[in-house]
Structures are given as C-alpha cells and as structure tokens.
Amino acid sequence: MKPVLSERAITLKRNISPVRQIMSFANPEYFKQLGLDPAEVISFAGGWVNHAAPVELQESYQEIFNDKNLLHKSGGYSPTLGMPECKEALVKYEQHIYDLNGLTPKQIAIGASSTQLTFDLMKVLLNPGDKIALLDPSYCNFPTQIIAALHVTIVRFPVVDVATWKYNADEKIKQFADFIRTEKPKVVLLVSPDNPTSQVLSDDFVQAALKAVEEIGSFLVMDFAYKDIVFLEKIPQYYSLAPSDHFLSIHSNSKWSRSLGRRLGWIEASEDIIESFESVQGSSILCPDTLHQMALTNYIHKAIEKNTFKPYIQQVREQYKKAAQETVTAITEQLGLPCFTPQGGLYTCMKVGMDGAQFVEGMLKETGVLFIPGWGFGRTLQNAIRISYGPLVNDHPKIHQGMKKAREFLDRNSHLQSQ
Ligand SMILES: Cc1ncc(COP(=O)(O)O)c(C=O)c1O
Fold it and tell me: Which residues, in sequence order, are CB contacts of 238 under 8 Å at separation 6+?
C-alpha cells in the first residue's frame, strides 16, 4: 500500500501558490511551449535586484578565499543564532545608517534568509487558531508560508481604492487601528517598502498599528526586505525603532547588497523572543551560513571606516528610483493605465481593467512580454498586475521597449477591458 503524505503537504500541492505560478510563468520551457524564444522575452516578472554588490563585500569574499585559515574557519558551524561579531556589526550598521540606538547583539538572531526567519518566527509568535493580519495587497509568499507553518486564520485589511487606483493606507489609519482592536490578531505583519505596491508606510500608520497591538497584547512584525531601497527624502522614524515586547523586524541581505543567492537575513526582536527563537532555528537550519557572516562582518567594518557605506546605499537608491521613474513614464506614455508611483523597492501595480491572470497570459502569448498577475497579492489586485523594474535597473531602453510591445496587446484587446 502506497503511504500517504500529510494533509498539509497535499493541500499545499493542490492549491497553486502565487510564488509557484510566478516561477512557472518565468520558466524558459514554458516560453518555448508558447513558441517564444526565451532570449526575446522581456520580463517584468522578477522580484530581484540587478545592481552590483558593494566592492568591499566582493573583496571580503576574495580575502576569505585567499587565506587558508579564513577559508577553513568559514567551513565551521556558526552558533545557532549567529556569530557574535556579525551581530555586533549589524548593530553598528543600524546605528551608522539609521541612527538606531538601543539595539543590542542579544536582540539579534541571524538566519538563512528572511523567508526562513519569517517561517520560523510564525512558530514562535503564534498558536494554532490564532489570527494574523496582513494588508491587502501584501507579499504573495506570506499566505503559503503562514499556512505551511501552522493552522492560523489570515485576516486582511484593504489599502487600495480599486475604483480610483489610489493607495489609501493613510486615509484609513483609524480604521486600521480599530480593525486590529476588533479582530485581535496575535500578529500584524507589515512590509515597507512594500511588495507589490512599493509604497512606504507612514509613521502615523505604523505608530497607530503599534499602539493598537500594544493595547491588545500582540506583535507588530515589520518585514524590512527592502528597507534600504527607499526613495523618500525623509526616512520614516520607525526605521530607527529598537525592538520591544511588541515590535520586531525581519531583515534581508538579498536586496540592498545584491546577495539574493548568498542566503543571509536576521531578525531584531526582544531578548525574550530571540531566546525562544533559538530552539526553533536549531531545528530548521541548525545555524546560519558562516562564510556569509564573515564576509558581511568584514564589509560593514570596512565600509564604515572608509565612509563608503552611506554613498553605496545612496547610489543604490538612486539607481532604482530612476528605473521606477522610467517605468512609470513608459506606462503612462504607452499604456495610459493607472499605476502607483513607487516610493521604494522594485515594483509598481497597474490596474488592467480585466482579470490580471488572463491579461498576463494573453500578453505573454501575443507579445512575449511577461508580467505577474495580481491575484496572489490579495483581492484588491484581482484585476491588476505587478510590474518589476528590479532586473532591468541597468537597461532602461528595455523597459520602454517592453511597454511599447505591451501596447500592441492593448490595441488588439481593449474590448476585454471592462472593469
Ligand atoms: C517582502 C519580502 N519579504 C521577503 C522576501 C524574501 O527575502 P529573502 O531573500 O531574504 O528570503 C521577499 C522577496 O522577494 C520579499 O519581497
């Protein structure tokens, strides 16, 4: 008799997850099935960055590889919650870039990535049957991660006015705080800058949410995967907030330093949470990668000493800000459809006036231009798509070329756009 897998595994396999759909859409084999030449496809699908990693970070890896002793050291296990010297360096980074004071190494746990840290964190913060609140739209991997971690209910708070295509979080601050007080989620999970909208939550919005979670005895978790890629003149004050009993944050090395494949992330949380995190992380990854921690530690010290850290971050921000402007301009000129103006991150969301998945499929087949359907990010994006300029940060002509081609599809299919 063939053994049966767990119900959770079967359910997860049965329900197509947005991330799996994104991955399968972007598969060159799929392009070939559609009769497209993969090399000719213009993709706005990738949720990844394409700028150069900091020179000193590249050098740090080279130094390790050129030194037998360091290379040997990098092959050893790290402590479960990360190397003390790397935690100290992260404290220094937060102080140097964001004037974040009051953070201590004991409030840091280093992990393999923010994906793994989020998954493990769910088990530390939530009990089966609890509620977790997400904005709508929000990062499309969260629902699967949350459900894969444990049985909890996800409640959503919409922050897009679908009719006017306005991101309206700031108009609904009181409603959001009331929503938290009424629904009583154990965790409120926010992202800023956000994926998929690239909006930066305001201080007022975050402070109101924090006050509400304090009142009901819950946690506000901020996913800071895009923290350093922000275009606003004024950086929000919650960027400099030390962890507390109610506030914790998840960080990633993937985006700012273009280290997506060199998996490293960390959380900043109360000592209590960090201590409880140890046995969960010990069970999932045992310990974070030693090589990446060594290289990052060395980089942070060197870049602060040489005064190159802030200029690097500034330059990265400018690169993506420019790519964001080019994308919005190309959309406006070629397609004339409503989209959000990015305040950070890698994306915008465009209302397409028809089912987003149908739009994406038709677009790819007819023009070889790839977008991501909005449904996976929440109901508000059912008739919308996510457009990423991250991979094309150094190729602005391709952004314009892609939108020009996309226009062909619109010219032929405008009758489908009703909503
Ligand atoms: C909001 C958000 N959080 C987390 C991640 C995953 O980051 P990591 O590479 O650290 O797992 C992503 C990746 O796109 C993201 O958009």
Answer: 201, 203, 206, 207, 210, 222
pTM: 0.96
pLDDT digits (tens, 9 = 90+) for 175-207: 999 999 999 999 999 999 999 999 999 999 999
Domain final residue pick, 285, 309, 333: 309
Q: Which amino acid is at 388?
A: S
In a domain, residue 2? The reply is no
Q: Which of 304, 292, 296, 307 is nearest to 262 (CA)?
A: 292
Among residues 309, 338, 366, the one where a domain terminates is 309
* Ligand 1 centroid – CA 114 distance (Å): 6
* Best residue for ligand 1 mutational test, from 110, 138, 141, 227 (most atoms within 8 Å of Cβ): 141
Q: Whose CA is nearest to atom 12 of ligand 1?
A: 225
CA distance 158 to 154: 13
Domain of 244?
Answer: 55-309
Instruction: Name which residue sits closest to atom 9 of ligand 1, judged by CA.
Output: 254
Contact 25, 364 (CB under 8 A): yes
Is residue 1 in a domain?
A: no
Other Cβ atoms closer than 10 A to 23: 12
| Residue pair 302/285 in contact by the 8 Å Cβ criterion | no
What distance in Å separates the CA atoms of residue 182 and residue 376, rounded to the nearest whole number?
A: 26
> What type of residue sits at position 387?
I
Mean pLDDT of 274-288: 97
The rounded Å distance from CA 140 to ligand 1 centre is 10
Reported as a single tens digit per residue, the pLDDT across 373-409 is: 999 999 999 999 999 999 999 999 999 999 999 999 9
Q: Which atom of ligand 1 approaches the CA of 254 most closely?
A: 9
